[in-house]
Every structure is written in structure tokens, then in C-alpha cells.
Design goal:
heterodimer, A: about 170 residues, alpha+beta, Ubiquitin-like (UB roll), DNA polymerase, domain 1, five-stranded mixed beta sheet, globular, B: Aldehyde Oxidoreductase, domain 3, Aldehyde Oxidoreductase, domain 4
Chain lengths: ~170, ~775
């Protein structure tokens, strides 16, 4: 099959950009190779592990099974967008640090972006709901325990429910 | 101000939370050529011919090498320190590519192309003709006369056989009135499933082959690349960036030697070999499946009189770490529950399956599955509570092992068991669950584990460290022990700050990215030795640097050296506590002085001739749905005595991960092979069931902090121990709930269905309902 290229224009981390991509390329490939957004990790490339997760028009997707050409006109956010221009971390990133939710760090970017989707919904999810929403990501270091704490605490903090008895745990 | 013992944030947390931390693929230039390995599609055979014509015509293909092209040099892959004694060297049985394929997934050819698509297309078009040979997948069948032979040198496929003969088992078991308990226990083949696959890239520069790799063992891998290519080891430079998990898989030379070779075949151009997930499962390393047979003879009071153990360890197709795994596992047997008469035999046997290597626990998860299931079987036979039985028989304070000189300085087992017992309200629940009859029953179980921190006296334990004082009084640290996600760098920073007398661990910069051109020699991340072994060289080197700093301070302050110390990053006169100058002022003067400039640094090697026991346990509470053959873990706790905690929050987090792995080991994870073809059946993250967010409850981690007297900072093993006792604790909870002992892990519905049927549990319910 001869290679075919297509111009893809989209917004990545707040900036409108264009590049020619191989029509067979995944969004992971485009983000990593063309834009050097290396927080987007490759763990399986078939949508099983969640390491490549990014937010497309407000919704979390495994970018490895999302064609780059589908990104045309879309608004894409990666982990790189969360730090402020002054170098300040977002609350969810800080929570991952404070709750010791990071070990090898390879699953971290994907998890944080799903957490962003959860937090931006403004909803108060139950523990079971949170676990289900986060279950598209695999992690082999943390047993998910502290990741759960980081996401839950940040959700409660944003909802002004910091005095939840959970926080004593 | 003490840094050790505090739950400070990881030194790499910011970079990992922002995506700045660069792993192997993130550092690779995007112009790299892409390598793809072509794997065997038969379980055992000889390659008769390879047709690369169609593959060569794929646009973008640069080079194809086959098993007929590579040098005929066999090399070992295990991440062990090299032994200068040829009798103790690892078995050299690998070639870069092989024409005698010994498992489905063996390496036959490799394609180098300009892009991934061309590499993948060409790999598919390579036509390999095999002469198929009979194969064997079962470890005991492989030992039978007439079984297919994998390696010429190893008769009956036995890589090694070691024994334990303590006392006189045969005579002792003849004592009258003994109760005999016998069982066979099986553990599965599992894979590490670090989220970053193994990946490496290589190029030639400055007369060296440079290999950047996701490895736990940079200096060892450098040596193995040199051996495999037949070039001086100094001609190889190994660089290790951040790595996305290892768990032992990356404690082998995986595809670094092949990648290093490939760059030499394309004029030193940059070649990247990124292993797909499916290949990681099959063609990297797996954990040895071990079948264990235990017979125990006890007096009616529960005293062990004679015990026998036989272990059959499934090595897969090549030696890799080989017999060390089952030998370590069997070594725990006579120690954990001391008994005067023990007979043990451990066999490591080749089969036509994926190669088994190191995996978190190094034989102990398998040994604890067998040993701790068996302890509950013994308690059941005697009609006593399994926890009480453990209290009676488990290794006591003061136990000393003659070989390793390890000593149990505190009553660690009892203390850990008491803590777990209290957390799960053991006695109350045992009583509550005693008389259940319904289809859904609850149970509570316990398992303890035995662990050794490092590998002395079996092999070399050496740690080297370099420290440099910067102009501002901060300190750079390098050690040969590697950060692989476990948090080692943070522990090193905390230790360094305390030894020198810095105010804060943030004043220490640990160089995390290792490079064999500049990193002091060390054997890397394995066993559970990083914090223990590096602690010695950090303490020794820190004291050396401190001595040099104070000597220079004498010159600047004109005070006697014995009246000076470093506290909170300041040079302090100890006689009156006066701060004379800051470390930063001293360092600036030292580097820019017009009269006496000096680069203040220190470097030293510490050879560790100690080892340390690290013990603990798991308590688990389960709910078993008998008709559905399903086990749900309701509550679980691990308790560890790993000595003094350097960083409690990081320690707790490390325990969580091990517990998660242990839950998977007990109930869901296994790599399956087709009996008819030897083909792996579930080598992907969807069908291989590792624990997800939904699969376990809150993971409780607690500690007993007995200061380890042999240690530089009172600490000892925690990396692997959390993965060792969880699976048998869950099994024993299922036993408690249903009265059915399940001896095969993982306890999937298939396994439970067979056992519940055998014991009449399932039939009973159908009858009752009708």
C-alpha cells in the first residue's frame, strides 16, 4: 500500500496546529513523534492499558486506537497542558505527589488525564463509581490504592467536602 | 534534623507528574531505524531455510539478518554478577538468533527498516521452513526418559538438581503415632506486566556501541552485550533512563545484545527495538511455574518430626536465572518452620515454553504458596487453628542460619502475625464463620513469608558510590544501584543528607539516569537489596566526603577538626554550637580559592558480607460464591518487619503494589499455552488477567520496625516481600470458608469448579434447590 498523507489541523493544549500525517498513524504516534508530547505513553497500542490516554473534546480516549486523521478539528489535551505557565502544578498533579500515587510513573500521565475528566464533570462519585471510571488504566506498582486516594481527595476538595471522614484514613 | 524516617515526596515525583520524566522511547531520536524480531511459530524445531526475498522488497527495509548470519557465540542472559570462577558462571545457552528453536516465540530473524510499518510488513513476509521436533510442556514429563531433549548437555532436561539432607528423615518418620500430611501444590506461569514494555536503542559513537535500554542492570547488561558480540566490554556503553517498571523481567539481558548487534550491521546507525506487548509476554521472561510435593510428619501435639519437599521448577526453553529461583524457594523450607529431619530435592527442568527468569520474589511466592497452603493442611489434620499452629512452629527469635549467618534478632514473625490478627479481628471472625452452610460463605486466612534481603554469601555484593560537593553546598550522588520505580533514589537522597549533615534531602541530587561510562560500578536492581546495599556505600562515602569537607573547613576557620561538625548544612563549632560558615560558602571558596582550590568529592566501594532476614505475613478475608465458583477478597492486610523505614509513605506504597500482584497470583493471573502446539494463548493485557482497579479492596499495609543491626541504616528488604504471602493467605481463607483446600493457583472458576465438585459442594446445592 502506498503511503498516503493528510493534513490534520487541530488544537493541542490550547494552540491550533497543523501537520501532515500518515493516514495509518495513531493519535499516539502524532502526539509523540510530531509534537514531542512524550507524556503520552505506549504500553500496549491496542487500547488495553490506558497509558496513552488523552482528552479529546472533553472526553478521555486511548489515543493509540484513535487515528491521527480523526483529530481534525478536535481539541486535544495532554498532561503537558496541566502545568501553569508559571510552573505551578494543577491540584490533581499535586495530589498524585502528596498521596504517593506515583512509583515508576509510566501509567501516571494517562491516569491523571482520566482524573481530569472525572473532576471536570463536577460530580460527586461514590467509591465504586470512581473505581469503575478509573478501571481503564492498568498499573503494576501501586495496587491503585494511592491513585484512588489522590483522585478522591481532589474530587472532594473541588466539591468543598474536605471534612469527609474518608480523609482520616 | 533527620531526613531518614520521614515520608518526604519522591525526588522524581514532580517530573513524573508533569510528563517531564524521560523514559527510553522519549529519548530516542525519531529518525531511528526500527527493528522487528521474527519469532518461531513452532514450539520445537530446526530452521531448514529462510526466504527473505519478498520481505527484502518491502520499501523501507534496510537490513534483514537471520539465524544463519549471526556470530556463533553463546552467551548467558541472567542478571547475575559475573563469576570469575567458571564453575559458577551462568549457563551460556543463547545466540542472538537461533536455528534450533525451543519455544513458540524463540528468535529466528530480525528486520531493520525505516519505519514501523515496513518493519512489521517485512517481518510477516519472511518465510521460515522448519523441521518440527517433538516438544514437551510439562515439567515432570520433560524429566522422563525418552522425553524430547532441549539441550544436549542436560540429560532428561534437568538443568540442575540440588538437595537438602538435615538429620535423618527416613528414620525419624518411623516414630510411632505420627500424623502424616501430604500435598501437591502448583503455581502458574505469570508475567511481570510492567506497563513500559522492554525497549532499547543502539548506535555507534566514539568507538563504542551505545545501548540505551529500559533495564534494571546497566553494568551487567554491558558485560553481556560485550560477550554476545565478542567485543571488549569497554566498547559497550549502557545507558539507563527512567524505567517504567521491571519486577525482574528487566534483570536479564533481553534484546540489548541483538539491538547492539543490529546497529553494527547498518553502519552504526540508530536502531530502535521496541518490544510489542504480545512479545513481552512470550519472548522476554516469565516467572517459573513450580510444582511442589510436601510430606510432613507431626506428633499429635503439632511438633514437626520429619518433613520432605520436592520441587519441580519449569525453566522454559533457556537457562536464564535457572536453578537459583527454586533453590532459594526450597532454602526457605527448613528455616521457616524449623524441623530436625528434612529431606529436600529441587529440580530445574527445561520445557518448550517461554523462558523463566527473575520475578519479584525470586522463588519465594511459589515456595510460600506450597509451604503456607501445606501449613493450613497440617493444622486442619490436627484440628487446631492455623494461626495457633504457626505461633507454635514458626521460626523464633534467636534463630541463626549456619550458611548465610542470618539471624532473627527480634520476634518478627510473632509481632507481625499479632498485628495482622488484631487488624482483621481474627478470633471473632473465625468464630463467626465457623458454621456456615449457604451458597455464599466467608472465610479468613493467614500466610507468613520468609525472605532474604540480598544474595550474600551466594554471590558478590558490592556497592560503589560517588559524591561531589557543588558550589552551593548541594551534593550530587551516584550509585550503581538503580531506580526502577521503587523509590530508591529518594531513599538515597534522604540517607546522604543525614550522613553528611545537610538540612534537607532536596539538597541532594541523585543522578538517576545511569551511564556505564560515568556511573560507579554496581550490579543494579535485583533481590530486595537496593536500600540495604547502597546504604553501606552511601554511609561510607558520605563520611569520607564529610571528612574532606571538615579538613578544608579547618583551613578556612583555623579550628581543630575535632571541634568541627556539619549540621543543617553549616560548619558548626561543636564546643559552643556556633555556626562558622555555611556549606555553600565553604564550597564556593574551595572551588574558586586563589590559594588552595579543591574539588571536594569522594568515591568508595563497600563490599557487603552480611545479609538480613525480612519477614511478615498476609491476612485475608474472602467471600466465596460456591455455585459461581468465584472468590472475592473483602479485606486484606500485609504486615512487614523490614527494619527501620527510610520513607514510610513510599514503603507503604511499595507494599500496596506487591499485594496487588499477590492477589492476581492467587485468583486470576496465568499465561496459558496450547497443549497441542505450545502456542501461548493469552499473551495480551485483556486476556491475561492482572488485577485492575475493580479487583481488590482497600490494601492495608502495616509495619513492625525492628532496627536491623547488620544494616547501615537499620533497614532491610521490602521490594519483593509484599508479593510473597498474599496468594496462600487468600487460599487459606477460601479453605476456612468452604473446607476445601485448593492447591492450584490461580484459583480461577475453572479450578474451583473442579475442587468444589470433587468435594460435593456444588452438587449439594443443586440438590437442595431441587
Amino acid at each position: 500500500m502506498a503511503q498516503q498523507y493528510k493534513l490534520v489541523t487541530c488544537t493541542i493544549n490550547g494552540k491550533e496546529v497543523s501537520t501532515m500525517v500518515d493516514v495509518r498513524a495513531s493519535l499516539t504516534d502524532m502526539l509523540r513523534n510530531d509534537y514531542r508530547l512524550t507524556s503520552v505513553k505506549k504500553g500496549c497500542e491496542v487500547g488495553e492499558c490506558g497509558a496513552c490516554n488523552v482528552i479529546i473534546d472533553g472526553e478521555a480516549f486511548n489515543s493509540c486506537i484513535y487515528l491521527a486523521v480523526w483529530a481534525e478539528g478536535k481539541n486535544i489535551r495532554t498532561l503537558e497542558s496541566l502545568i501553569s505557565p508559571e510552573g505551578e502544578l494543577s491540584d490533581i498533579q499535586q495530589a498524585f505527589i502528596d498521596e504517593t500515587a506515583i512509583q515508576c510513573g509510566f501509567c501516571t500521565p494517562g491516569f491523571i488525564m482520566t482524573a481530569v475528566e472525572i473532576l471536570e464533570s463536577g460530580k460527586h462519585y461514590s467509591d465504586d463509581e470512581l473505581r469503575k471510571l478509573l478501571s481503564g488504566h492498568l498499573c503494576r506498582c501501586t495496587g491503585y490504592e494511592n491513585i484512588f486516594k489522590a483522585v478522591k481527595k481532589t474530587m472532594l476538595r473541588r466539591l468543598g467536602k474536605l471534612d469527609d471522614p474518608f480523609l482520616k484514613a | 534534623m533527620s531526613n531518614v524516617g520521614k515520608s518526604v515526596a519522591r525526588v522524581d515525583a514532580f517530573d513524573k507528574a508533569t510528563g517531564r520524566a524521560r523514559y527510553t522511547d522519549d529519548r530516542c531520536d525519531k529518525g531511528a531505524l526500527i527493528a522487528r524480531v521474527v519469532h518461531s511459530t513452532v514450539a520445537h524445531g530446526v530452521v531448514k531455510s529462510i526466504d527473505i526475498e519478498a520481505a527484502s522488497k518491502v520499501p523501507g527495509v534496510v537490513k534483514i539478518v537471520t539465524c544463519f548470519d549471526v556470530p556463533d557465540i553463546k552467551f548467558p542472559t541472567a542478571g547475575h554478577p559475573w563469576s570469575t570462577d567458571p564453575h559458577h558462571q551462568d549457563v551460556a545457552d543463547r545466540l542472538l538468533l537461533t536455528s534450533h528453536v525451543r519455544f513458540y516465540g524463540d528468535d529466528v530473524a530480525a528486520v531493520v527498516a525505516e519505519n514501523e510499518v515496513a518493519a512489521a510488513q517485512a517481518a510477516r513476509l519472511i518465510k521460515i521452513e522448519y523441521e518440527e521436533l517433538p516438544f514437551v510442556l510439562d515439567v515432570q514429563k520433560a524429566m522422563e526418559d525418552g522425553a524430547p531433549q532441549l539441550h544436549e548437555k542436560f540429560k532428561n532436561n534437568i538443568l540442575n538438581h540440588t538437595t537438602i539432607r538435615n538429620g535423618d528423615y527416613e528414620s525419624a518418620r518411623k516414630e510411632e503415632g505420627l500424623i502424616c500430611v501430604e500435598g501437591w501444590y502448583d503455581t502458574p506461569t505469570v508475567q511481570h506486566c510492567h506497563i513500559e514494555n522492554h525497549i532499547c536503542y543502539a548506535y555507534e559513537e566514539n568507538g563504542q556501541v551505545v545501548v540505551v535500554s529500559s533495564t534494571q542492570i546497566p553494568h551487567i547488561t554491558r558485560r553481556i552485550c560485550g560477550q554476545a558480540l565478542g567485543i571488549p566490554w569497554g566498547k559497550v556503553r549502557l545507558v539507563k533512563p527512567y524505567i517504567g517498571g521491571g519486577f525482574g523481567n528487566k534483570q536479564d539481558a533481553l534484546y540489548e545484545p541483538l539491538c547492539a548487534y543490529l546497529t553494527t550491521q547498518v553502519g552504526g546507525r540508530l536502531v530502535k527495538l521496541d518490544v510489542p506487548r504480545e512479545d513481552t509476554f512470550v519472548s522476554n521472561r516469565v516467572r517459573h511455574a513450580i510444582r511442589t510435593h510436601i510430606i510432613s510428619y507431626m506428633r499429635p501435639d503439632g511438633t514437626f518430626v520429619a518433613r520432605k519437599i520436592e520441587c519441580f521448577s519449569d525453566q522454559g526453553a533457556y537457562a536464564s536465572h535457572g536453578h537459583g529461583i527454586v533453590a532459594k524457594g526450597m532454602g526457605a523450607f527448613p528455616q521457616q518452620y524449623p524441623c530436625p529431619n528434612v529431606e529436600g530435592d529441587a529440580y530445574t527442568v527445561f520445557t518448550n515454553k517461554s523462558v523463566a527468569g527473575a520475578m519479584r520474589g525470586y522463588g519465594i511466592p511459589q515456595a510460600m504458596w506450597a509451604g503456607e497452603c501445606h501449613i493450613d493442611d497440617c493444622a486442619r489434620a490436627l484440628g487446631v487453628d492455623p494461626l495457633e499452629f504457626r505461633f507454635k512452629n514458626i521460626m523464633k527469635k534467636g534463630y541463626r542460619d549456619g550458611f548465610s549467618k542470618n539471624e532473627l534478632y527480634d520476634d518478627s514473625y510473632v509481632q507481625c502475625l499479632e498485628k495482622g490478627k488484631a487488624y482483621l479481628d481474627y478470633d471473632r471472625k473465625v468464630a463467626e464463620y465457623a458454621k456456615q452452610t449457604g451458597p455464599v460463605r466467608r472465610g479468613i486466612g493467614v500466610a507468613a513469608f520468609w525472605y532474604n534481603t540480598a544474595v550474600w554469601p551466594i554471590s558478590l555484593e558490592t556497592s560503589s558510590c560517588r559524591m561531589i560537593l557543588n558550589q552551593d553546598g548541594s551534593v550530587q550522588v551516584q550509585v550503581g544501584e538503580t531506580e526502577i520505580g521503587q523509590g530508591a533514589d529518594t531513599a538515597y537522597a534522604q540517607m546522604t543528607a543525614d550522613v553528611i549533615g545537610l538540612a534537607d534531602y532536596k539538597d541532594v541530587h541523585v543522578v538517576s539516569c545511569q551511564d556505564t561510562d560515568v556511573t560507579p560500578f554496581g550490579t543494579g536492581a535485583y533481590a530486595s537489596r537496593q536500600t540495604y546495599t547502597a546504604g553501606f556505600s552511601i554511609r561510607q562515602t558520605g563520611l569520607l566526603l564529610k571528612e574532606r569537607i571538615l579538613k578544608y573547613a579547618c583551613e578556612l576557620t583555623r579550628q581543630a577538626v575535632y571541634n568541627l561538625d556539619i549540621e543543617e548544612g553549616n560548619i558548626v563549632r561543636t564546643t559552643d554550637g556556633r555556626v562558622l560558615m555555611s556549606l555553600g560558602e565553604l564550597a564556593t571558596e574551595a572551588l574558586y580559592s586563589l590559594t588552595h582550590s579543591e574539588h571536594l568529592s569522594a568515591e568508595s566501594t563497600y563490599q557487603i558480607k552480611n545479609n538480613a532476614y525480612s519477614f511478615g505475613c498476609t491476612f485475608a478475608e474472602v467471600e466465596v460464591d460456591i455455585p459461581m465458583c468465584k472468590v472475592k477478597v473483602l479485606d486484606i492486610i500485609n504486615v512487614h518487619d523490614c527494619g527501620k523505614l527510610i520513607n514510610p509513605a513510599l514503603a507503604e506504597a511499595q507494599v500496596h503494589g506487591g499485594m496487588s500482584m499477590a492477589i492476581g497470583y492467587g485468583v486470576s493471573e496465568q499465561l496459558l499455552f496450547d497443549e497441542k502446539t505450545g502456542k501461548p494463548l493469552n499473551n495480551n493485557l485483556l486476556d491475561y488477567k492482572l488485577s485492575t482497579f475493580m479487583d481488590h479492596p482497600h490494601l492495608e499495609a502495616q509495619f513492625v520496625e525492628n532496627y536491623e543491626p547488620t544494616s547501615a541504616f537499620g533497614t532491610k528488604a521490602l521490594g519483593e516481600p509484599p508479593a510473597c504471602s498474599g496468594a496462600p493467605a487468600i487460599r487459606n481463607a477460601v479453605f476456612n470458608a468452604t473446607g476445601v483446600g485448593v492447591n492450584r493457583a490461580p484459583m480461577t472458576p475453572h479450578v474451583l469448579f473442579d475442587r468444589f465438585s470433587e468435594e460435593g459442594l456444588i452438587r449439594d446445592f443443586w440438590r437442595e434447590e431441587k
